[in-house]
Design brief:
Structural class: alpha/beta
Shape: globular
CATH architecture of the largest domain: 3-Layer(aba) Sandwich
Helix content: 40-55%
CATH topology of the largest domain: Rossmann fold
Order of helices and strands: EHEEHHEHEHEHEHEHHEHEHEHEEHHH
Number of strands: 13
Oligomer: single chain
CATH superfamily of the largest domain: Glycogen Phosphorylase B
Radius of gyration: 22 Å
CATH class of the largest domain: Alpha Beta
Length: 409
């Protein structure tokens, strides 16, 4: 059985690590696995059966054209034509599509090819882009256009910024047509929430199932460090957060509330800040640089007493899972897929936008002590989000699809 993965990145970023994990596990399980990607930090000899899609100049041109009309994945024709020749040479039984929205591929050409060649196709909903008119998420915008025809997009200037045109209606119409032409299409959501959302659309009636993303539970463990000492907060209760959520303008009230109400023996640490952001933070909120080193990341998770995530829309949220695996209880907003990352026993979810409840739960953990939750946090993650156990479900899915096609031939 031959399986080809297509993703924007390989071995880096959330989807790049996920694809690498599934690709390697597939090979370990006797599947002839291939991967095509746009960028990677890895050397070519580190990627078995790898293929690079496009060149830097083509991707820059794609980005410029996309910026004009908002139609991402509508350019890179030459790069896509070369990819299709590569697929011809491989002759895969299954093509697994991941993230196609990074200015490197002409998606309609690819989908048309898969339909005409009658290749079994799997799509993973890492976000909502496959079934919308171009946005990655719509919950925060309170938009339901994706259920019908799109148009008058409230996120025209955001996810795929367009300087001139609103192409969302055309994009959604194309999605319906090109995905609709693929006979054997399987939809996988990284959470139950996004699986259900996707199958409310033109994907309704297709084989669909959730497979949670996973993490290496043997790597993310409680790890001793001198992070507290380096930050000068040895005797403080530490509330940890990520800048890409906490420093959004929509979450300013939440940050101000936390900073104003933290007790004297507590401090907030926000990871992923630039110098300007650090300088603008309240006195009891410490900014840290973006952390690329995974060993350092687990040290930071481990030193915190509670991880608080004010995410408002998320397909799943692995940072919640990683923190818990390091023994740090987590409090998150429950909207969208993030609610599936906690059990409301060892870690908790509260109503989205209710930052006072977010704070109260963090303080409940402070009162009881981190160690009252740590063991249960890790057990929950190991049971629900172990990388190998979860991605074995993809192996089973590939075999089911492959054997089903053989039986019907």
């Amino acid at each position: 059985m031959k399986v080809l993965h297509i993703n924007a990145v390989y071995g880096v970023g959330s989807t790049g690590v996920i694809v690498e994990d599934i690709h390697k596990l597939s090979i370990e399980n006797g599947i002839d696995s291939y991967v095509a990607y746009s960028t990677t930090p890895k050397a070519a000899n580190e990627i078995p059966n790898g293929y690079v899609i496009g060149k830097k100049i083509g991707k820059k041109l794609h980005a410029v054209l996309c910026r004009i009309n908002g139609k991402q994945a509508y350019f890179s024709r030459l790069a896509t034509k070369k990819l299709l020749k590569h697929i011809d040479a491989i002759s895969p039984d299954i093509v697994h599509l991941h993230n196609l929205h990074s200015n490197y591929i002409h998606m309609n050409m690819l989908l048309d090819y898969l339909a005409k060649k009658d290749i079994s196709t799997v799509i993973t909903l890492h976000d909502c882009w496959f079934y919308t008119g171009g946005c990655f998420h719509y919950t925060n915008a309170k938009c339901s256009g994706w259920l019908h025809d799109c148009g008058n997009c409230p996120k025209k200037k955001e996810d795929t910024p367009s300087l001139l045109f609103d192409s969302s209606a055309k994009i959604l119409k194309d999605r319906k047509a090109y995905f609709g032409a693929i006979k054997d299409l399987t939809v996988v959501g990284v959470s139950q929430w996004i699986t259900e959302e996707g199958t409310r659309t033109f994907l309704k009636g297709r084989r669909a199932l959730p497979i949670h993303n996973g993490i290496n539970t043997e790597f993310f463990v409680n790890t001793p460090s001198n992070v507290k000492e380096a930050l000068g907060i040895e005797n403080k209760f530490v509330v940890l957060g990520m800048s890409n959520k906490w420093l959004m303008s929509i979450n300013k009230e939440a940050l101000d509330y936390f900073a104003s109400n933290l007790p004297q023996d507590a401090v907030m640490v926000i990871v992923g800040c630039n110098d300007e952001q650090k300088a603008s933070l309240p006195k009891n909120v410490i900014g840290m640089d973006y952390i690329r080193d995974r060993n350092m990341l687990r040290q930071v998770y481990s030193m915190a007493d509670v991880f608080v995530n004010c995410t408002r829309e998320e397909s799943l949220s692995l940072v919640n899972v990683e923190a818990q695996c390091c023994g740090t209880p987590t409090v998150t907003y429950r909207n969208t897929g993030a609610q599936e990352t906690v059990d409301n026993i060892s870690s908790f979810s509260v109503d989205t936008e209710d930052y006072k409840a977010l704070f109260e739960k963090a303080m409940e953990i402070k009162e009881k002590g981190k160690l009252s939750f740590s063991t249960a946090c890790r057990e929950f993650v190991k049971a629900k989000f172990d990388r190998d156990e979860n991605y074995k479900k993809y192996i089973s899915l590939y075999k089911e699809i492959y054997n089903g096609r053989k039986e019907n031939m």
